Structures are given as C-alpha cells and as structure tokens.
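step 4 of 6: structure.
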Amino acid sequence: MASDTLDKAQAGDLLRTMWRIRLFEEAVEDLYGRGMMHGTMHLSIGQEAVPTGACVTLREGDQITSTHRGHGHAIAKGADLGLAMAELLARENGYCKGRGGSMHIADVATGNLGANGIVGGGLPIAAGAGLSNKMRGTDQVCLCFHGDGSVGEGAWHEALTLASMWDLPVVFICENNKYGMSMPSEKAFKVDFLSEKAAAYGMPGETVDGNDVEAVAEVVQRAVDRARAGEGPTFIEALTYRWRGHSKSDKNLYRSKEEIAEWKERCPIARFCHKMLEEGVLEQADINQAQVDVRTEIRAAVVFGTQGAEPTVEAMLAGVYAPSPVDYQDILKGLN
Amino acid sequence: MPRLPILMPKMSMTMEEGTVVEWHVDPGDTITSGDVIAVVTTDKVDMDVEATADGTLTEIVAGPDTVVAVGEPMGWLDSETDDLLGDLFASPVQQASPDASGERVRAVPLARRLASEAGLDLATLAATGPHRTVRARDVREAIAARAARPAPLAAYVTVPTVVPAAPSVQAAAGELLGDKKARRMRVATARAMVPSAVIPQFTCYRVLDLTVLAAMRKASRTSVSWTTLLLRGYALVLREYPNLNGYWADEGVKANGDVGVSLAIDTPTGLLAPVILHPDRTAVAVLDGQVRSLAEAVKGGKVDPSLFAGGTGTLSNLGGMGVDRFNSILTPPQATALSVGTVGLKPFFDEDGTVIGRMACEVGLTIDHRAADGADAARALQTMQDFLSDPIALLS
Amino acid sequence: MTDMRTMTYSEAIREAMATAMTNDDRVFLMGEDVGIYGGAFGVENDLINRFGPERVRDSTISELGIVGMGVGAAITGMRPIVEIQFSDFTAQAMDQIVNQAAKLHFMVGGQANVPLVIRTPAGSGTGAAAQHSQSLEAWFAHIPGLKVVMPSNATDAAALLFAALEDPNPVIIIEHKLLYKQSFQVPVKIPKARLGEGRIEVEGTDLTIVATSIEVRRAIEAAEQLAAEGISAEVIDPRTIRPLDTRLILDSVKKTGRALLVQEAAKFGGYMAEVSATITEGDAFGYLQAPVRRLCGLDTPIPYNPRLERASVPQVEDIVREATALVREW
C-alpha cells in the first residue's frame, strides 16, 4: 500500500487508529495518575504507527500475539475501547472479566491471542498458531509483535527456528524501541540491525522506519502475502521509540531528555498528518475532526469502563478451569 | 489378666531417654522376673533391661532404634503380679462424670470418638500407644472388659473384712504410715481432693427444724433413718435447683440430667462415697433400704466400682460421731456438698423468750461459687427446711 | 466377560494416540525423536509411518518452543500432544507450561481454552542419574489451571490419555520409564476414565496405602506380603494427581484409621504432604488411630550407583516394613 494509492477513507482510518492508540494511552496515564487504575501500565505512546500499519494488512481470521505493551496492538486489531478500558479498570465486564488486566488483554474471537506478561512468551504461541493454521489448511496468518528485549530470550530463538523449519505462516514484527527496559539494544546486540539475524534462521529480514505508518504497512503486507502463499515466516524490525518510561516506575535514568525530545520530533501521528496534508489526501478539518471524534470515543470508553461491576471471588474460582464435557454431563444429571 | 507396661528404666542420674537396641524376646514368649528382655543404649553405653514381673510379653511398641523417654512404655506384659503403683496412674478415682479437671489425655482421634460414644472417660483407660497415647484398641478393650463385667479394681475398693486395730506402735520419723492398701486409699483420696482446693467454695450453715418429721417418725410404724430423710431433702433441693445439681464447665453451669447423691461412708481404711441414684424419686422406704445395704456392703469390703458413678452432690454425716457442724469440701466436679451434724434436741426460743428443745440438725451446705452464690445457698437451705417441714412433699 | 489382551504400557499409549489421531484430525503429536526414531523409549515406534510427518512431528531440541507452539495450536483449534522426552526437561519449558498454558484461560476471562496434552516420562531405576530420573509431579500439582495424571498401568495410560484429550484444560500426563516395557492385561475396549477419579486396587481393613505411578505396583505387591502376615492393606491409586479424588481416600481412611502415603519423589515439599493434609483436615480425622505417615524418596538427587539408586526410592520391602510398623505401633 504505497502512499499514492491511499485514499481519504484509508488515510482517515489510519489516522483514527493512531489517535485511538495515542488518546487511549493518555487516558490510561491520566486514570493511573488519579489512582483509579491498579498495578502498572506499559504505555506505547510514540509507537502507534507500528501496530496500525501492520494490522491494516490483515484479513478477518488473521491472528496477532502481543506483548506486555499491548494496548496499541489490541486497538489496531480492532478492540472495543470500552471493553479494553473496563479490563484495565479491573471490572468484570472487561475483556478478561477483570482477571487479566493490562498485560493480558485479549480478544480471541477477533484473533488477538493475547498480550503477554512474560517477555518472549508470545513467540512460541504465535508459531503454534501458525502451525495450526497450516495444519487446518486455512490461509490465516499470525503476526507476532515482540520487542527488542525478547530477542535475548531463548523463546525467540526457538520460535524462529521452529517457524522456519516448518515454513509457518508467521510474521515476526520486532518493535525495536531501542531499549529492553533499560538495556539499550545497540549495546545488547552486536549487529547493526536486528534484521540481520533473520538470515541465521533462513528467513527474510527487513528493517523499516517504525514511525512511518505507510512504510510499515508496505513491508508487512509483503511478509503477510508471503506467509499466506505458504512461503514461510519473515522477520521485520520496526525502528521506533517510546516516549514514556518502560512502566510507571521508570525514572528514565538510562536515557537522556534530549533523546526523548529528538524522537518526539519524529512523532508518527504528526508525520503522517503532515504528509497527508502535503499530498492533499486529507484536509486540516479532517484531521481535526478525527481527533475530536476519537476523543469522544475514548471518553465514552472511560465512562463505560468505570461503570462496570466488581468481579466476585466465586466467579474467579469458577474461571480457573474450563468445564469439560464430563462436567457438563454432571451438571445435566444434577438438573434431572 | 492385667497388662503391665515394660517401662524404659532410668539407669543413670542424668538419663532422660534411651534408644532401644534390640529385644531378646518376642511377643508370646513367657518371661520371668529378672530375665534380660531387651538392650537399650544411652549416652553411648548399652544397658540390659530386666523384666520386673513374671508373665507373657504381649506387645512391643518400641522397636530397634526407637527413642523412648524414661518411664514410658517400651512394651506390654500380661501378668498376675500385683502392680504396686501402676493402678495409681491408670485407674479411675471415683466417678465417670464429665472430666472437669482440665487435664488433656493423649489419645488418637479414633480413640476419642469410640470413648465418647461408649461413655468412657479417656483418663480412666490404659494408654498403650507411643508417648502414652490411648490407642483405639485400648478403648475397644475397655468396652469389651466393661461388657464382661471384670473383677473389681484391685486394692482401691477391696477392703479387708478383718479390721486391723489402729497402729499404736510409734513409727520412725519419715516412715510411711499404714499398710499398702491404706496408703493407696490415702493417695487416691488425696488425688480426688487436691483439685477441690482450687475451686472457690463456701459453706452456709443452717439449723434445720425437724420437729414435724420427728413427730411423724414417732407416729409411724416404719422406722426410716434420719440420714435417709435428710438425703431425701437434699435430693429434692438438687432437683429443684438445676444449677446446684449441675457442674461448672468454664462457660457456664452444665446440667446433669438426674440427681445422684454420693453418700460418704467411713470404712476401716478410709472414706468411700458410693452413689445412690435418683433419691428424689425413689420411694422413701426403698431409699432407706438402699442406704442401709450400701453402708453394709461398703464396710464389708465388696463394692462394685460402678457404684461410684453418677453422683451430682455428696452428703456426709458425722452427726453420729458427735460432730455438731462441719463443712465438707466439694468433690469435683460436683457443685454442692451437704454436711450433716448431730440430730438431736437443740435449744430454741419460743415467743416469750423461754428456751425450749426441738429436734434439729445443723447442716452445712458447701457450694461451688463459680456455679452459685450465697443467696442461692440460702434459698436452697430454706427450700430444704420447707421440704423437711412438709412430710407429704418430702415423701411423695 | 470383557475381552482382554496382553500389551505393554508403551504399546497401550501408542495405540491410544493412534486411535485418537484416527478419530480426530485435530490431534497431532509433536516432540523430540518421536518420528523416525520411534521415540526415546520406543513409545511412538512406527506411528510416523501410519500418520505421516505432519501428524507425528519431529521437533528440534526446543522444549520451551514446542510447548509454546502447543499452546498456540491449542488455542486456535487443534488438539496437540506435546511430548517432553524426560520430565526433567520440563524445566526448560516452565514458562509456557506454568505462565502460559495454565493461566491463559483464566487471564483472558474464559475467551480461550488451552486443550493441550503434555506427555512426559518420569522416574528412576534406569541408571540415568540426577538429571534424567526425577519425579516432579509436585511442581505441576501446585499450579491452578493445570491438571496432572500419573497412570500406573497400561489400561489407565490409554484411558487417561483419552480423558485428557477430551478435557479443554492443559493436562500433563506423567508416565513412568520403568513401566513402559511392563506387560498388562488390557481390555480390548478401553474403559472410559474420568479425570479426578481414583481407584481402589486392593481392598483392606487395617490401613490405607495411597500410592502413585510405579509405587502403586509396588504397593500391590506389598499388600500381598502383608496379607500373609495377617495385615489387611487397602491400596488406592488416585490416578489423577490434580484434581485429587479426595472422597475415595477419606472414605478409605475412615474405614481403616491408618494411612501410609507412598511416592517415588523426594519427601520434603512433595505431593504426599498435600494428600496427608487433605486426610487430617478432612472428615477422616476423627477416625484416625495413627499419625498419617509418608513413605517417599530420599531427599537427594537420584544417584548413579545402582544400589544407591534403588535405596533412594521406596521399594516393596520398604512398604511392607512401614505398613507393618504402622499397624503394630498404632
């Protein structure tokens, strides 16, 4: 999807998606600051273009796996903002009934197989989904979002090895935001670009400007098409940056204010707006309207989320195991 | 046949426990006193353990490498030999009423359940398990033994028919007085009475006017003893005041279903208090017969241990021996005790100040202050007086 | 009269997998050396010839990867059986077993099930020493969201595999290496087993022996010897470690009043501590006439020397000795 083929509607969708992610994260930050949100939050402000560009290439039925910094992935994959907010507010009408929270947000029915609190946890799962797609003979594809930090995990190595060995329909998208928590990826990895590692696994590797939503979409589309055609996995490194710390307890001691400021200049949303204006795809009014509309959506989502009920212990305990057919038989017997 | 424990002997000043090394005999073997039956080690020294009685080894509870504290059983022996002190630690004191002493008996859960169901007091059972724990089989054996009505417990209740004169020989300083059986009696009495010392108790005295009853006795053809009549009066009071008939159980007074009066009887070897059950309901003539035959049986020496169960109060009568008034102490867990002094003519003042004689008896009603107060005692004594002044009420 | 045939524990597992794969396209097996090699213990044998390399899938040595792939496949409509070659290697895969498989259903609020089966052989006696001989059921028994079974005979190995495949939750089947080559009488039609249901192997009145895996076999043998000595032992195989058939065990202990709990795994922090607590906390307490005793492996890594190895885990004579002492002392 090159920029000269973007029409107003498509551009509007991309912009709204990125705004949704941006404003959702800002709302979360605000709620957290007010003491209304529990735990910690891993915000993806500044990284909006990667999931937006990646997910626009997907069809219905395609899957994604996500990370602990997964709000953006979920929203780009089409999550209901209200259900997502309710989950973050730990309500029982949230996506996960208040049991998973930020790090385990999922919308399995629409293919979001879940955020993951374990670094690298989603990689083998994505490979497994790819295997499943292949064995079932569908042409579903699984996007595996992961960060530069997870490249240090054995799970990353094993997932790429297995996906490559079996030519699985998986696209490994590495959001390299320059830091695995406080470890700079430039220090951690002796290669210039993480995409160089792909060759070691016998799969194509490409590095892309992660803050250019159109560029991301183009690269991912190619990889998705490859996978869908049965040609196996691809590794994509998307260079981006997170404006906020790793989590709420991050004092940002490992990076400089200048660096943060510099990257803020490269804001993906600002860049896209600028480009769309220049190319005449969007008017300023469209851009403003998009922001206003999304703002309304986010506010409604917060209201929805705060109105949810508190989950109960009984419901929680009943949620540890899925009832088996044998259990159902017992229930039926009990009813008779 | 009585079971005797083979105890880990204390073989040195500082020894507190020993480890069994080996047994030289097996269950079923006959043993003679003095045989070396096992080897134990303590402080790295092996020592021989000798049998202290003749009999048959029935059970080994501590096998090789088991550590046993001094004085705890290593095994069990069936033996006819008189166990001098054993029954003091294994046998019951008097009654099977609820255990209010506060001492916990070690017993396995099943033993507790079986004992509770059978109405047995765990404290009265032999404890043959490790660490002196009552095992289930101990309870089962006690149940079977009870059903088979065994011979009365040795020594404690067997009183010699020939009454030895009180010893007039000067005993040496520090020497234990009395023969074995008498000593056992004293120890048992002491064991029963010492817990009474921590119970807060007081005695209220009242001179009971027996004029009406005296006239009745004179007019009647049947002679009923004063003890019987006072016993009857006491029993009716106990029935009237359930809190006095009950027993203190930490959070309150628990009721006893029936009235049972322990009648303190002096015997040549000491005090015994067999129980007369429901004297509030028995016909007085029958009651009188019970009192007489009980006294004879006890003094004669043959008493069934089950006669000591079920007392909810005690009546002691020292009036026949010239005591005017006294305050017997409570026999735990009973809440009252009635002390009866001499029955006879006592001086009273009539309306114009003239001294007249009336048949009377001064009684002391000792009460467990946890269960009742002074006013309760006063009320009870008034009720007793009321009953004794109303023969129809007393005797029906 | 049920038709029986003689087959080994490993044959029964193989046939059960074959039946499952024949009847359900979603079932497939993934593991190390399960294809052309035929399985490290010969369990798979010629399965790959019958079902092909797609259904009987050889993996690289990537326990974490293949269990994770099992999770991914399970949540997207497949019914994978993942084999971990030695249960000691589950350590490599712990994140995917404990943090992912066990918790996904819960964490996503029921949006997905993880119908994953993990099969793995445990146990000592082959001289494979410390890192290839452990019994780690306590690790998995501890995790809410997992189910764990330990078949002690060929029939159960097959029946519990079927039950596990039918269950929408992740199930870990811990087999025993020494049982693989043992022959059993197996009904031609494998009876339906329920997860969470144990079985009384031997009826008795003097004590209840609860045992797992190979210790069930040893306990049955011990019961015969005990009977000759006049001690009547009841032997219970819980079959499922989690969820435990508490009722079966409590009723038995209420009857006998004594419990001897036998496992091959090391004693401290082991599974039988859980069973012991269950007994004393349960309604069997008032019927106990003896302390609940455990007979377990020694608290040591399994040693190489064969005599030491044998002495490290409960043998038949140990069960006889402990049962006798328990009944005589109490």
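step 5 of 6: annotate
 - Chain C touches chain A through 46 residues (CB under 8 Å).
 - Residues 9-23 of chain C form the longest helix (15 residues).
step 6 of 6: archive
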